Amino acid sequence: MPAFAGMTVERLSGQTPAAATSFSVDRAFIASQHRAMSSTPPITQNPDIRFLGRLLGDVIRVYGGEALFRRIEYIRSASVDRARGIVGSHEIDSGLGALTLDDTLAFVRGFMLFSMLANLAEDRQGIAAEPGADVAAALDRLEKEGISRAKVVEMLDRALIVPVLTAHPTEVRRKSMIDHRNKIAELMTLKDIGRTETVDGDLIDQAIYRQIALLWQTRPLRRERLYVADEVETALAYLRDIFLPTLPALYSRWQRALGHRPASFLKPGSWIGGDRDGNPFVTADSLRLALSRSAETVIGYYLRELHELGAELSISTELAEVTWEVEKLAEASGDKSSTRSDEPYRRAITGIYSRLSKTYEKLTGRLPARLPATDAEGGAYEDPAALRADLVEIAHALNRTGADSLAGNGALGRLIRAVETFGFHLATLDMRQNADVHERVVADLLRVAGVEADYGALDEPARVALLRSELASKRLLRTPFGAYADETLSELAIVEAAAEAHRRYGPAAITTYLISKAESVSDMLEVNILLKEAGLFVPGDPPTAAIMAVPLFETIGDLDRAPEVMTQWFALPEVAAITAARGHQEVMVGYSDSNKDGGYLTSVWSLHEASSALKPVFAKANSAIQLFHGRGGAVGRGGGSSFAAILAQPHGTVQGRIRITEQGEVIAAKYGTRESAAANLEAMASATLLATLEEDALQPKDAKRFFAAMDEISANAFKAYRGLVYDTEGFRTFFRQMTPIAEIADLKIGSRPASRTKSDRIEDLRAIPWVFSWAQARVMLPGWYGVGHGLKGFKDIGLLREMLEAWPFFQSTLANLEMVLAKSDMDIAERYVALVEDEAMGRDIFGRIRDGWQRTQEALLSVTRQTRLLQKNPSLDQSIRLRLPYIEPLNLLQIELLKRHRAGEDDPRVREGIQLSINAIATALRNSG
């Protein structure tokens, strides 16, 4: 375990500040931790962690002072010694009692930064990388199974893979902290290739030290709550700096592997600025802002690339032939300079730059940073296809004149690919709203129009009949003479802004309208009523819909009803016509709320069953199925390996089309650098290829047995989970007092409220704070509770082991379960029970939780034939155990700070310490939200 500065200091003594600013330590608790950790194998050191940890220690000593450094290093070494079994429990003095409040804040920052740097080091060493999770490996695997490259290319021509960035508030770090972290990653890459200096002449090690020093002096916490505009800018930074340069480079790699230029099947998506579900701050103006800033970003990128390309294509007609198409572009460019008269490619690029500058001004309302040198013929480009056509003419000319190496590859090839992939919109923006809102808005429209006085009182068949009648009519419901609710006007403004976006940026800017809490066909028809008011649904024979209404099935009950709802949906003739024209229909399945509703095992099994049951429904409707997986970062919200998760999908449900949400800390972890982004996008693409084209891993006879077993296991797990969370008297109070849920809600990490309503019911709490708060207390309850009851209650251990050996779904389910069990800690969690006011209730409920954890661990180890958690996954085991000595003191300090805060202590340092500890623990756990 690396010391902060490569040394271990002597034990401190005689440092006991006033009781009002010190912390007590439970030696019995420390001893229990020692016993738990002493039997595990030693941790293999990552040299990057040693190097970065030493620099961090140097920074703390220089900028915090020798005394602070010695206190922090003492706590660190004492905690590490306990974890490694170097000292006995009777010798342990944690050093926490010597900390003043000011020291506490500095200590927490130090441990948080170490965890951040350790994450970086592990990512660089490929700890999170998965073997075979790249397209080249997938192609080789498919070829060995008799699946040709031609078949892969055919599939990719109709494929769509979309990582969708959301603003779900689970990223506790400020963007400034992430930026410094990414700069360190870039510098470490230079160090890898043997460089000792940067291009600016700075020594690499000194430059890394400087970035760590900046991290130490950068405020970790946000002072103000984020606004939607802030979330838009954060997402744009990733899209601009990572996705724009990385995806074209990946396509070049994939083209070489395929021996064919594939279609642009992988594109980014976003919810930021369009997701209104529970967020009153997302409005029509938010939608316009997100789209305008996206256009500004992507077209600005094209302009910069064109400028560089113009400098590169210095081909002279005196030395090479030029086609008449390029000559035509050159003549239309307005570039009459005699110095470039023999350089038609440069002149053609100048003309394209001029037209694209006009496009930029037209779509953004402002001038580009670098004004065009000429005024080309043709005006602004009508759409991305027109821009691409001009670029392709240049590429074709280079090919025909023998310069093919300059055409398909290099800067020109990457720019053409970028235009195909990102258009003028950068990332397709989804709209999302709750079905209850749609019902109220449609009821308001129908009432004011005199069509139906009480739409809410109608049963489902009557609603469907009325809505279909309205969709068949060319008459609009809204009248300028009507008086509408503010909610109605706001929702109509949103769809009008979407129609405006289609006219301005093209139909790819917004393709999907997601319906949260979707339970029926009428929920989907209501969205089309709203789209019709903006001209995005047009009645006719057949009707057309420019934006697809997509149901989000979230709860266990919703998932059970999903096949029936979609069967009824496809049975409507107008829907069948629209689906046939589009070729596919999307369904979104929610991991977070289904988990909160029914627990981890029942959630993942219900998602699997719903997906399987939807497959024949779509086949009968002659529609391709496109599943949108609403995954979070934590296992309790669908987190874990995307590669394994895609491979674990029911056979035949991927079909080359899949969308997956990426949010919060996951965005920074996966897409913080180009290298990590490339690896994760590769994994998503390769898993989709394999899931689509490989034969089913399960034989029908095995599937029948395995599915029946999962039904029984899930039922028992569901009963146990619901019994604890929803049927136990006082559990709601226990949860809110034991965990820092109230303090998490106070963090400035997102623009939307933590709860859907003012109620304190668990049903109304958003899944993110539900999972986040259990992670902080090291319980991780949403990721495992009930699983032990399900597995232990199933008597055929041989069948369970057979399922683990043969079934990717079961493998992925248990792998994620094992990870979350390894990150949880019941001894630390028990310390949080002291925060519960009713001691008897706290002991009783926590006793059930501890018993459930022990039952789940025993069952998992039995099925996997292990003697301890992660025995068969040493890299993940080492990664987690590396952090444990750094998390334990943070938890102990957080508990003491919570006690003082809840007792009414108003020192602002107490509140800041709580927020810093939340930040630090989340950073160390990585996927806590």
Automatic annotation (TrEMBL):
Q: Which GO terms describe its biological process?
A: carbon fixation; oxaloacetate metabolic process; tricarboxylic acid cycle
The prosthetic group or cofactor this protein requires is: Mg(2+)
User: Does the entry feature the keyword S-adenosyl-L-methionine, yes or no?
Assistant: no
List the Gene3D superfamilies hit by this protein, alphabetically. Phosphoenolpyruvate/pyruvate domain
Which Pfam families is this protein grouped with?
PEPcase (PF00311)
The protein's UniProt keywords, in alphabetical order, are: Carbon dioxide fixation, Lyase, Magnesium
Catalytic residue list: H168, K596
Top-level taxon of the source organism:
Bacteria
| Gene that encodes it | ppc
Q: Which GO terms describe its molecular function?
A: magnesium ion binding; phosphoenolpyruvate carboxylase activity
- The organism is Rhizorhabdus wittichii (strain DSM 6014 / CCUG 31198 / JCM 15750 / NBRC 105917 / EY 4224 / RW1)
Task: Report one GO cellular component.
Answer: cytosol
Query: What name is this protein filed under?
Result: Phosphoenolpyruvate carboxylase
Q: What is the lineage of its organism?
A: Bacteria, Pseudomonadati, Pseudomonadota, Alphaproteobacteria, Sphingomonadales
Family classification: Belongs to the PEPCase type 1 family.
